[in-house]
Amino acid sequence: MTTSPARALPTLARRAFSTTAAVAKGSGGKPTPNKDHHIVQYNDDDFPRGFGVAATHCGIKKNGALDLGVLVSVSERPTAAAACTTRNAFKAAPVTVTTELLASTDGRARGFVVNSGCANAVTGSQGLDNAWAMSKSLTNALAPQPETWGKEKAGSLVMSTGVIGQQLPIEKITSAVPKLAGNLGLDSKSWMDLARAFMTTDTFPKLDVSLRAAPISTRQSVDQAVCQ
């Protein structure tokens, strides 16, 4: 998701937290390499303006890890959104909901809500209802859409990752989303927490920020990526 025009931002300083080769005992007592050296530390002002993020543990994962996150556009200008989805005939419910939302709003979105621990795939009509409930829980928790966005209403996209064939504990999700929407952060810790909320079997959070020159402009734009 992007807002435009991009603001001029300072050059990013990338610093690894650790470059040690320490190991820890994983499942079965086998050594698991420490992956902290893959994590990049960013400053609060490295991240793109116009977005607020938050994450929490809502009860999907049994180990207490972060499993629910939101990203919300706080810009007064319409926020463009796009999705690259599977062409498989058997799409998971979040893919169907996100595709329909983007088609109905001409590529506009207020934000997205993501969970990990349950993919909401191969879950039938109930899974589809749950994906729509996730989307509406965020949209309904946000302040009214700014008039500068125009009359066309934008919704909230949905993403889920994790175990296939299980239903989401939707009540836990829809009760936690409004709290997240009311506690959005703009700092580096909030972004890192969002990246951790994407994690399933990952051994470290995947968060990247980079600057690039905007075409036909003296300004720079920010590319932001959070991956599972």
What can you tell me about this protein's structure?
With 228 residues, this protein is of the alpha+beta class. It has helices at 93-104, 124-141, 170-181, 188-197, and strands spanning 15-16, 23-25, 31-33, 40-41, 51-56, 68-73, 109-118, 155-163, 206-213, 220-227. The strands form 4 sheets. The protein has a 4-stranded mixed β-sheet with strand order 5-6-7-8, with helices on both faces. Strands 1-4 form a two-stranded antiparallel ribbon. A two-stranded antiparallel ribbon has the order 2-3. Helix 1 packs across helix 2 and helix 2 packs parallel to helix 3. The two termini are 17 Å apart. One of its GO terms (cellular component) is mitochondrial matrix. GO terms for molecular function: L-glutamate N-acetyltransferase activity; L-glutamate N-acetyltransferase activity, acting on acetyl-L-ornithine as donor. It comes from Trichosporon asahii var. asahii (strain CBS 8904) (Yeast).
